[in-house]
Amino acid sequence: MAYCIDLFSPETYEAFGRSSRDISGFRLRHKTIAHRIKPGDNFVCYLTRVSRWFGLLEVVEGPFISDQPIFVAENDPFVVRFRVRPKVWLNIDNAVPIHDEGVWNGLSFTQGLGKGSLGWTGKVRGSLVRLDDCDGKFLAELLEAQARQGKVYPLDEQDRRKLVTHIVNRPDKVVTVSVPESTVSEVEEIETETRESTKIQALIARIGARMGLSIWIPRGDRGAVLKEWKDQDHLLDRLPLNYDDTTLRTIEQIDVLWLKGRSIVRAFEVEHTTSVYSGILRVADLLALQPNMDIKLHIVAPETKREKVFQEVRRPVFSLLERGPLAEYCTYLSYDSLRELGAQRHLAHLSDSVLDEYAEEAE
């Protein structure tokens, strides 16, 4: 029996709760990892934004592919599915916060960390991540006990704001968006050595090159990046693309591009500033100019900027792009996850699709 994480946003939690709760769906990019799940395994349900454990679902059958809507009217993105039996399903105010003392000290990936640490968040970055057996059993017993006891964990005002749903009505569907609150702007520290974001640019370039891909770095960044990444054999001097000048100028400014032949396969914007606006605007500009361009888009930022990235990607203005809401095409990659990937010995034998195991979506 294995235990895997099943991530829910507040919106999918509410929708699944209103359904018969016998089908759990995942995005198509989870298809490969889904085949590792067997009947009898358990999904341990985790609520994003408020960081709470709330459910336990036993796998009965699957995986199978279906685009029949589960609990939305149309365009349901959760097409990789399992039939499940709900063993525990808690209300949000009964869901157990991961920062609860007993939980924090009981999980192998949080015990020993300070409460302000973000070192544990990689474990809950995506659905179908397998938990260590000891953690899975611990959470299963915790949730079953909580279902009997019904202890209340009151939501504070900040958490309640995170649960508020805002929607935009597109011609083709209804989209959930975020409306970020105004924050006091911070002054960026002047760094005397190479900026961390430049090191991450170099790391992304190095990973792509080791996979045999061609790399594009904006000309203005090359001097700094090449101090960190010495392999120039895979660096392109010009982009082999046939677009209009406006599109080309936009593409050329993206922090890192991975290309295979004459096609862009991945585009990365590295966000190290407080606002995390510039890179998101650039990828939105690209989609506005070329709505049919089929490339994977990633915003790369420190763990401390994770929620900020998700908030900005889900702004109302980005929900109205012709191709579809930006949140459906642009994912988040943490600095730590890229460092983890970059440390793998066999990168030369991997394809770029391995990034999908590290990328997080703005649910």
Fold topology:
Layout: E1 3-8, H1 10-18, E2 23-26, H2 31-34, E3 42-47, E4 52-65, E5 80-89, E6 96-97, H3 101-106, H4 133-149, H5 157-162, E7 166-169, E8 174-177, H6 196-210, E9 214-216, H7 219-225, H8 245-252, E10 256-260, E11 263-270, H9 278-289, E12 296-301, H10 306-313, E13 330-334, H11 335-342
Parallel strand pairs: 1-3, 11-12, 12-13
Antiparallel strand pairs: 2-5, 3-4, 4-5, 4-6, 7-8, 9-10, 10-11
Describe it for me?
With 363 residues, the chain is of the alpha+beta class. Helix content is 28%, strand content 21%. The chain contains eleven helices and 13 strands. Strands 1, 2, 3, 4, 5 and 6 form a six-stranded mixed β-sheet that branches. It has a five-stranded mixed β-sheet with strand order 9-10-11-12-13, with helices on both faces. A two-stranded antiparallel sheet has the order 7-8. α10 (306-313) links the parallel β12 and β13. α6 (196-210) runs parallel beside α11 (335-342). The radius of gyration is 21 Å and the shape is globular. The relative contact order is 0.11. Residues 182-190 have low confidence and may be disordered.
Question: Key terms for this structure?
Answer:
single chain, alpha+beta, six-stranded mixed β-sheet
